[in-house]
UniProtKB/TrEMBL annotation:
Protein name as it appears in the record: Thiamine-binding periplasmic protein
Compartment annotation: Periplasm
Keywords (A to Z) from UniProt: Periplasm, Signal, Transport
InterPro entries: SBP (IPR006059), ThiB (IPR005967), ThiB-like (IPR005948)
Main location: periplasm
Ranges in coiled-coil conformation: none
One Gene Ontology cellular component: outer membrane-bounded periplasmic space
Keyword Transport: yes
Protein family: Belongs to the bacterial solute-binding protein 1 family.
This protein's record includes keyword NADP: no
Lineage, broadest ranks: Bacteria, Pseudomonadati, Pseudomonadota, Alphaproteobacteria, Rhodobacterales
Annotated CDD domains: PBP2_TbpA (cd13545)
Pfam families assigned: SBP_bac_1
Amino acid sequence: MNPLNLNRIIPAEGRFRIFRHAMPGSPSPHAALETDMKTLVLASSVAGAIALSTAATAETPELVVYTYDSFVSEWGPGPAVETAFEATCGCDLKFVGAGDGAALLARIKLEGARSDADVVLGLDTNLTAAAKDTGLFAPISVTAEYALPVEWQDEMFAPYDWGYFAFVHNADADAPTNFKALAESDAKIVIQDPRSSTPGLGLLMWVKAAYGDEAPAIWEDLSDNIVTVTKGWSEAYGLFLEGEADMVLSYTTSPAYHLIAEKDDTKAAAVFDEGHYMQVEVAGKLASSDQPELADQFLQFMVSDAFQSIIPTTNWMYPAVIPSDGLPQGFETLVSPEKSLLLPEEDAASVRDEALAEWLSALSQ
């Protein structure tokens, strides 16, 4: 038998590998074994590094916060809040944009207890009763000295900012002083859909709170003034800035952005003598959160100076707690409504469906 055709069995790292005897001029079996061993050592090193990296990642807790799109935009509060909180929490804060404010609750209802969210930030008092009815939110304990125009007592939600809805227009143009005058004018307006947008829903509550049973007639008269209805605030404000409308549903604080960020004093908020509806934006913790203590830490951080000082010049709203340095220069120029309107959350919940039906009926004619 030719020995060159024999196979040898050589042990290698607890396994048996079969090598054919080398032909003249080919690597020896020992060289092949050495190469194989080096490959195994290298593979083990790479696997170990990956395992260590994975373990390090697993040790860093992640907090997922659902919010509205403008909050997480590069010009919104999200990036600065993320940096500030991560500096204190030893965690990874992940913001997830979920459309506009009213769309947040719809998404949470759809996902239910399977949601990846730990915290929902961006609901308001028109939606809190409906949110509580889902049974998906857990009680919280947040302490703060709030600077809200209303007393705050809620075991499920904590406020982080507030403001008044208003129609913003070019300052050099005459503006109506109430809804009836607006309907009688030739002004073209852009508003948001109340089914997806908290400003849109706030407008429904505003008209209902101001006019009660007259609300359907107000909407019928306003229908000719409405250029379009957008899904969210950003789209509507963009159309106004592009000259597609004379006025846009926004906030009394919106002109502060133009004044402070752009050195532009050409925008103003129209003051309505019926009063202005107030919005208080809130955040809450989901009962299904797998990071309940971290969620509590974030909610308490939310009312701290580190968070609240970011709000005025990124979300362009009044902070729920006055920052230690006060409000930015320019906020003193904003209009202050003489009359505030705000339906209690229980009333808002019961009125919402009726107001929406009135709005849909008027705009479909």
